[in-house]
Design a protein that fits this description.
- The structure is a single chain.
- The protein has a 3-stranded antiparallel β-sheet with strand order 1-3-2, with helices on one face.
- With 178 residues, the protein is an alpha+beta fold.
- The model has no long low-confidence stretch (mean pLDDT 92).
- It folds into 2 domains: 77 residues, 2-Layer Sandwich (Ribosomal Protein S8, Chain: A, domain 1); 95 residues, K Homology domain, type 1 (Ribosomal Protein S8, Chain: A, domain 1).
- The chain is built from 8 helices and 6 strands, in the order E-H-H-E-E-H-H-E-H-H-E-E-H-H.
């Protein structure tokens, strides 16, 4: 059995219209997903799972939905090469005012910074509460995570954008085999 807790306002997204999202998750993994809509507790019964690793992926999908991802983006985690990480803004800021300021830096004006991070790294990003969550392939995840950490540590946006462009170019060269 695996356990997760998600915010109550995200339970509806996890269950989906007429239970469709939850059913789709159960069919894809053969795990039984039990949701307590009062507490936000989610229990994943892995006894019928295709493999134990898939049960962990199901828990990550549940947590991703709880961190603000849509069901489509969260289901990307079913791919073998997709990973999920959550960064806590409280690790970089203490006061509620500073946390709000850091959220604003990560999102950017009209979502510009978030959009650029997603475009340059190929990662999916969600800023929810005091967390920044990322879903991406292993190489993309490392770059996106470093970019978000740079912003949270106070680096200028221009510096972060140049870092991501340089890393993207390095990845392209590596893929070509040079």
């Amino acid at each position: 059995m695996l356990y997760a807790r998600i915010p109550q306002e995200r339970i509806g997204v996890l269950i989906g219209p007429d239970g469709w999202t939850k059913r789709r998750l159960e069919e894809a993994s053969r795990c039984k997903v039990l949701v307590d809509s009062e507490s936000g507790e989610v229990t994943i019964d892995e006894s019928g799972a295709k493999d134990k690793f898939l049960a962990i992926k199901v828990r990550d999908i549940v947590l991703a939905i709880g961190r603000g991802f849509s069901e489509e983006r969260a289901f990307r985690l079913l791919n073998d090469d997709s990973y999920f990480v959550v960064l806590d803004i409280k690790d970089y800021a203490r006061t509620p005012e500073r946390i709000a300021e850091m959220r604003g830096r990560v999102i950017g004006t009209r979502g510009k910074t978030r959009r650029i991070i997603e475009e340059l790294t190929g990662a999916d990003m969600s800023v929810y509460g005091h967390t920044v969550a990322l879903i991406a392939d292993d190489f993309q995840l490392a770059i996106a995570q470093e970019a978000v950490e740079m912003i949270l540590k106070g680096s200028e946006h221009k510096t972060v954008y140049r870092f991501m462009e340089r890393k993207r170019d390095e990845l392209r060269i590596a893929e070509m085999g040079f």
